Amino acid sequence: MVKRLAWTWTLIACLAVALASCSRGSATDILTTTTILADIARNVAGDRLTVGSLLPAGADPHSYQPVPQDAARIKQSQVLIIHSGGYEEFLDGLLENTEGQNMLIEASTGVRFRSGTQGEDATDPHVWLDPNNVIVYVDNIREGLAKFDPNGAEIYEANASAYAHQLAELDAWINAQVAQIEPQRRVLVTNHEALGYFAERYGFTVVGAVMPGFSSASSPSARQMADLIEQIQLHEVPAIFLDASDNPELAQQIAAETGVKIVSDLHLESLTEGAPALTYIDMMRDTVTKIVQALQ
Ligand SMILES: [Zn+2]
Question: Domain 180-295 has what CATH class?
Answer without folding.
Answer: alpha beta
